[in-house]
Amino acid sequence: MIVDSALYRDGSRVEAGGDCRSLRTQTSEPGDFVWVGLSDPSQQEIAEVADVFGLHPLAVEDAVKAHQRPKLERYEHMFFLVLKTLWYVDEQDAVETGEISIFAGHDFVVTVRHGQGNELHSARTQLESTPKVLRHGPGGVLYSIFDRVVDGYLAVADELVIDVDEIETSVFSPDRTNDSARIYTLKREIAEVRRAVMPLREPLGRFVAGTVAGVHQDAAPFFRDVADHLARVAETVDSLDGLLSTAFDAHVAQISVQQNDDMRKISAGAAIIVVPTLIAGIYGMNFEHMPELGWTYGYPFSLLLMGIVAGGLWVVFKKSGWL
Amino acid sequence: MIVDSALYRDGSRVEAGGDCRSLRTQTSEPGDFVWVGLSDPSQQEIAEVADVFGLHPLAVEDAVKAHQRPKLERYEHMFFLVLKTLWYVDEQDAVETGEISIFAGHDFVVTVRHGQGNELHSARTQLESTPKVLRHGPGGVLYSIFDRVVDGYLAVADELVIDVDEIETSVFSPDRTNDSARIYTLKREIAEVRRAVMPLREPLGRFVAGTVAGVHQDAAPFFRDVADHLARVAETVDSLDGLLSTAFDAHVAQISVQQNDDMRKISAGAAIIVVPTLIAGIYGMNFEHMPELGWTYGYPFSLLLMGIVAGGLWVVFKKSGWL
Amino acid sequence: MIVDSALYRDGSRVEAGGDCRSLRTQTSEPGDFVWVGLSDPSQQEIAEVADVFGLHPLAVEDAVKAHQRPKLERYEHMFFLVLKTLWYVDEQDAVETGEISIFAGHDFVVTVRHGQGNELHSARTQLESTPKVLRHGPGGVLYSIFDRVVDGYLAVADELVIDVDEIETSVFSPDRTNDSARIYTLKREIAEVRRAVMPLREPLGRFVAGTVAGVHQDAAPFFRDVADHLARVAETVDSLDGLLSTAFDAHVAQISVQQNDDMRKISAGAAIIVVPTLIAGIYGMNFEHMPELGWTYGYPFSLLLMGIVAGGLWVVFKKSGWL
Amino acid sequence: MIVDSALYRDGSRVEAGGDCRSLRTQTSEPGDFVWVGLSDPSQQEIAEVADVFGLHPLAVEDAVKAHQRPKLERYEHMFFLVLKTLWYVDEQDAVETGEISIFAGHDFVVTVRHGQGNELHSARTQLESTPKVLRHGPGGVLYSIFDRVVDGYLAVADELVIDVDEIETSVFSPDRTNDSARIYTLKREIAEVRRAVMPLREPLGRFVAGTVAGVHQDAAPFFRDVADHLARVAETVDSLDGLLSTAFDAHVAQISVQQNDDMRKISAGAAIIVVPTLIAGIYGMNFEHMPELGWTYGYPFSLLLMGIVAGGLWVVFKKSGWL
Amino acid sequence: MIVDSALYRDGSRVEAGGDCRSLRTQTSEPGDFVWVGLSDPSQQEIAEVADVFGLHPLAVEDAVKAHQRPKLERYEHMFFLVLKTLWYVDEQDAVETGEISIFAGHDFVVTVRHGQGNELHSARTQLESTPKVLRHGPGGVLYSIFDRVVDGYLAVADELVIDVDEIETSVFSPDRTNDSARIYTLKREIAEVRRAVMPLREPLGRFVAGTVAGVHQDAAPFFRDVADHLARVAETVDSLDGLLSTAFDAHVAQISVQQNDDMRKISAGAAIIVVPTLIAGIYGMNFEHMPELGWTYGYPFSLLLMGIVAGGLWVVFKKSGWL
């Protein structure tokens, strides 16, 4: 589906109408460029756009298929960029991923979105209100999208920090918690975030270094700003992964400690029952000469004795921390 | 065994007949090349082919012996490439490996297959129907084989993802499962996949950089596409390996938790038997003055008492989560 | 808030008065520079300063927002440096972090502090009493701040060494201690220190190499001194992290050893009760011909027998280390 | 001890007789070279040889002392190479190490062997029968020794693969095995193999790159072949080390699982004894009105009841997998 | 304290007397140099020496303060080197560290020692007896000190190997040993050795490469020899660290195995007591018709029965490896 397509001239949108082919023919002055936005395009839609802008077939195939790794590929007159978008779904405590493919030449940008996420729409809206950035042409568009996408990463990283804090609280709570499944799931999601973030560093570095043809040298500080955010996400994610590993080990240690506590509690309880049983056994012996057996209050005495012994054991175990 | 040998000219197969020696003599125009396909060749077969195309003895030795590491070696007028093929055998949940050795010069390609796998046959069939690629000569053939082989890796990686998902489900199921053997086996297979995939990255990178003599610069984007798939396999495999390690740790934690649960269950059960035993012991004492012993319903009363105590304990343990 | 602003000429403070705009206009001779110190500045304050010194908007944004990674960014006529400050709060055994952003050009330094910490004030005081360093201009100011900040790191590292020593003592003490939470917390703080320290190495390296424009080559040995301290912090922190991991493993091993000891102690205790119970059971049997039952001292004899057996078991278990 | 010394000319051994000093004087034509083989030489023997060929004193000291790391050192007119030899002793399941030091100049090779291993003798024998390689001079000798030594590594790696397979079988067998000592020993041996193999890669790489003076460029493919085998050993050894770590973890998991199984088995067994004890306790109570006590077959009935209860428990536990 | 100071000319000590200032004035011929040896110098002593030889204040500060990292710093006319010395104290099984700071220019060497260790004295003694090395001037002195210090590392590494062997024996002995504290301590010492050894590699590499001004190119093989020993220490230490980790894991596994063995032993012991208790309970039942109760030898029979059952269980458990 073609979501939006427009001609931009000197930092503002030109209401030119028509399909992308006619739009491109209208790029007459230097700095003019067309931005076509596609969303889960059909084979035919992408084919037409590819034809208009002369996109490389391999890149087009990648843009259609989705499930690509983040990457930057240079072709003769254009480059092709794949970004992963990330967002956090609160209801499921899960990280979802989408994909944006971008073709950019000196006078056009074609963006292809897979999955949900409105980074592209909001990037376009914001750009159209900041002519200063828009005047940078395709480079400005790229910066704007990068900025949105990486802001999304930061938001996800913040949510993951909260999740790790929760797990931490749970692990060290005195309650019996089984956190291993949750830690596993979170580690899995962190791995997913890492797969989106890590391969992006190298391409972004090329924008920062200003070695991508068609992107103006002046834009470098802006890309550096995005790269800095990306580095922050990467550091956070690495740090969380390490913390989760430590939390997991602590969780296992807690299980051992609890088992030890339980064992001692059980043993103390057993002693409190077994010692009176021994006393009952003694008064159940059949000796002819057992003075207590003839006592009028022998029976209550024996029960009292059991009670005192059991109580005494209870006190002893309580004091020594076994109960 | 010589599987197939043919002369290719201008993107299509020339029905020229004859053995490979005669085929080679027929390569008259620039771009002509001979493709000889061998499968588990005898010493004699390979010797003849080596003689016709002037293959380096060390490379020939490697091609015959199999069990080589993936590698790319340059000789004066040819290069020698070893690839590992991978496929997944559903019946055994196992990854199998084969090997393809390729000798390529400016006017010939000699492919040697060890083990099963029909990457070579299908590559040839498909190439013969796409003259555009075939016209690239030996470079096109190489691309086509690389593409097939790496597609095979992707398929294996997908199967491994499923296996890891299954293990994950098993580890976190409430059932008592002993997953360590399965995790071990899977880790072993992942190591095998890694041995096929990792050493291939460097040679493939040389094709992408276009520094392999005899392979046209224009082919670089195609090799880059294959390299991208290879990187995806490598990332998946690394990620799975990490997940398996985490899953294994979680499995060990689950064992501990279950042991703890069992211990508490057992202790609760023991208490339910031991307390009535104490009561029986008490009424088995031989005191002369034990009023209950003379009661008409003393016996049923004692049994009832045992039942009530046992039942009470059962309720208490049930509520506190020990049973 | 503007904390302090002054004009420096030839190594000493010029009592020139006025706001930073008027101060800057007074920089007439080469080597003159203005140092403006801000603390958690309002949007308006920073805007004015930015206007006076021509600070880059992206850097200004970073300086206002705080929570940046340590970094060094070069702009055309200035550079922008972000440092994390660290200090140890004894009451909470916790490491706290602050942030200092520094803009520096050939004739000005603007420092922005977030959070507590008086590195900037003490750096200014000390500098004003050492004209030799102050004469180096903005480079001297930078060195002085770097020196203070890294000295703060060294102090924190020393405190962490003490914390690890305490944990070590606790882990290997014969007492039952649950150190996992404390180890976890310390690992978390070490990760925080690392996030402050590690990214600083690269920018500091650039000062050491003397490749930062506007900082005099002669200052290199001084920056090398700071870099050396930073390396010491980094090494200490890495080493502590490794020790903590080992201490954690040892802690888990101690738990296992204790559980084993407990189990044997419990078993020995159980035997001491259960064997007399068997004896009582035997003398509770109803055989007609049991000579002991008729003995005058049969009952005391049986009790004595139980006592001897229990005492004997106690001695045996004591000797074999089970009790 | 001087094992063998000979003059080689144009690919074959010249029966020239005499000690090494006289042999060297006979090297008249280009390509002539002397090969002196020493085994655990005395201080005096090596001193004489060093004098004849002008060996550097530091290299000579290393060659005498043994226990060197594998290394390649260049001196003005010669180079010095240290190799570790490895072999597997079946009786002890252990890897043994020896050492070969090689001095080589344009017209001589001096080899010094420490420990057992006959790589040098067999290398000489084989070389003397392949004049083609021998004609390469000292470079050919080096290649031949390298080839032998690395073949020895491959043989050791194959044995280690078998050992790991055995451990794997043992770990996952249902038997109670204590594999940790064996895994430890094997890890230790793998570390030893690694110490022989890893430092060799860099020097061998220099031969492959053809940057070692005095070794002919044409020999590069041969050295590349050896380097390839070395890489295979390195990969195998790394892979085995990883597998052993995983196997060890699985072993620990198996211990836990077995402990759990044992605990449940024991508990079930205890229940089968304790429940009849309760029944006996009940019929041991002294109530006046217990109808069963008067029954003629009360006693067999009670025994039967105990038997049924015990049998019933046995069935229940068997079915639920506790026994 | 000034330990020794002397003027050296052409490889031998010149008995020139006087303090270091007068000694320096006597360096008249090229190759002459003064070597001043200080030990824990006072502020004043070092100040005077610094003044005589023009030492850089920052380096002097480092030399006085001690607790520096090993490093090599170049100043205009001199360089400054910090080395850690290590030795093993048998009584405490502990590694102790000292520190040597060296200032060297073309005509002087100033060595400052902190802590014990007589590397400097023995280096001077030996040098004075080998004029060949001494003739190299300050470079020769440096080599000699490096050689001593690294020999000290080798000695410490050998002691650590013995310690690890002892731990290994202890871990795998059938005795109950608690090795975790010892392994921890050893790991801590290995970390200390590593902190002395690792940072030295880079500076030593510069001497090997011959890029340190004032050190003669001819000395490179000697420094290479030292670097080789350093590499051996580094490898040994890394390898020991890995072995200790594995030994620790094995230790934990042994604890688990022992716990399992104990549990089974305890259970078997419990069964041997509990089953006779059941028999006693049976003959304690109050049925009117229990033929055994009337038998003349009923009581001994019952005891015999208990004995046989207990003995039988003992045999069964012994055979199945539970006892």
TrEMBL record, chains A, B, C, D, E:
The chain crosses the membrane at residues 266-285, 297-317. CDD domains: MtCorA-like (cd12830). Keywords: Cell membrane, Ion transport, Magnesium, Membrane, Transmembrane, Transmembrane helix, Transport. NCBIfam families: corA. It comes from Nocardioides caricicola. It is a multi-pass membrane protein. Belongs to the CorA metal ion transporter (MIT) (TC 1.A.35) family. The keyword Repressor does not apply. SUPFAM superfamilies: CorA soluble domain-like, Magnesium transport protein CorA, transmembrane region. This is Magnesium transport protein CorA. The keyword Manganese does not apply. InterPro entries: CorA_cytoplasmic_dom, CorA_TM1_TM2, Mg/Co-transport_prot_CorA, MgTranspt_CorA/ZnTranspt_ZntB. It is found in: Cell membrane; Membrane. Mediates influx of magnesium ions.
